[in-house]
Amino acid sequence: MRVMGLAVVLAVGLALAPLAAEGQPERRIGFLGPRSPSDTVRPLDAFRTGLRDLGWVEGKNITIEYRFAEGKVERLPDLAAELLGLKVEIVVAEGGAVGVVQRMSKTIPIVMAEVTAPVELGFVQSLARPGGNITGSAFNPPELRTEKNLQLLKEIVPKLSLVAVLWDPRSRIGAPTSWKSIQLAARQLGVQLHSLEVGSPNDLDKAFKEATRARADGLVSLVGGNIRQIADLAAKSRLPAIGSHRNFAESGGLVSYGADVADLFRRAARFVDKILKGAKPAELPVEQPTKFELVINLKTAKTLGLTIPPSVLGRADQVID
């Protein structure tokens, strides 16, 4: 009788367990990005997959409030305020959006999906010991975005002499870090740089006209937003161009090289999971990228009359025909 009674209790308990899980209140987190949704499709898919693998399913036990600045960084403060007003438990932020949320709250946990130089920007005290309310994944170190990309462009365009550099002087990492780094790399490679400063998407047409007027042989984009527009303008200007995000090449740019952003977003899901379960951001070490990808658009290369060297093609993670 006792054995039968125990069996009945276990059976009832197992039957009610799913109902208890479904009855749990949904946890609410926010996502804030400076780019457009179309520029963030693959990374966000990886983020949601990462959450599902950890048991967090949108619409069941977690709600994600999305806000996108569409490349207009001046919108970020208002969007961040909206998220904080919704009483989200965590804000997952991309790029420059991290600093915006940090200035508004020193207590809400912030997970960086991708940020270049988080220590230099003052987001964390150190990678090993963040020490505040921010943790997550770092993005490309400045030398990767500049030296490596400039070197790749030089390999693909052997006669490279004048390189237009698209960058945002308002960015706290664009001016002091990336620009200085690419100047050093240019001297080492023996090429000249032509600065193209863009403060908003409205500046892009003018910048590419200037690159054409200066007769630039190629272009390095250090701008994180408006990737599709930049790739399209580079193609129309017949400029061999390289960017740090995969969808730069997918959108028609010649080549992209940088950290696997989808992998960084997948890692962000792990940070969210740990924080929702009680971990403190100050105690979660910032992770550095370990997966990098080189994507080459052969269709664009043919349009530009370029032959990609076998040594470069052999290193590609993806070739777009």
Structure description:
Helix 9 links the parallel strand 9 and strand 10. The N terminus is likely disordered. The chain is an alpha/beta fold. The strands form 2 sheets. A 7-stranded mixed β-sheet has the order 7-6-8-9-10-11-12, sandwiched between helices. Strands 2-1-3-4-5 form a 5-stranded parallel β-sheet, with helices on both faces. The protein starts with a helix and ends with a strand. Helices cover 42% and strands 20% of the residues. The chain has 2 domains: 150 residues, Response regulator (Rossmann fold), CATH 3.40.50.2300; 146 residues, Rossmann fold (3-Layer(aba) Sandwich).
Quick tags:
Rossmann fold; alpha/beta; 321 residues; 5-stranded parallel β-sheet; elongated
Summarize the model shown.
By secondary structure, this protein is α/β, with parallel strands linked by helices. The protein has two domains: 21-139 and 260-290, 3-Layer(aba) Sandwich (Rossmann fold), CATH 3.40.50.2300; 142-259 and 293-320, Rossmann fold (3-Layer(aba) Sandwich), CATH 3.40.50.
The domain tally reads: 2
How many angstroms does the end-to-end distance come to? 71 Å
How many E strands?
12
For the record, what CATH class of the largest domain applies? Answer: Alpha Beta
The CATH architecture of the largest domain can be given as 3-Layer(aba) Sandwich
Helix share of residues? 40-55%
What fraction strand?
15-25%
What's the average pLDDT? Answer: 88
Strand order of the biggest β-sheet? 7-6-8-9-10-11-12
Structural class: alpha/beta
Uncertain parts: 1-23
Element string (H = helix, E = strand): HEHEHEHEEHEHEHEHEHEHEHHE
What is the third-level CATH name, the topology of the largest domain?
A: Rossmann fold
Number of helices: 12
- Report the sheet with the most strands, covering strand number, pairing sense and barrel closure: 7 strands, mixed
Shape: elongated
State the fourth-level CATH superfamily of the largest domain: Response regulator
Cα-based radius of gyration, to the nearest Å: 23 Å
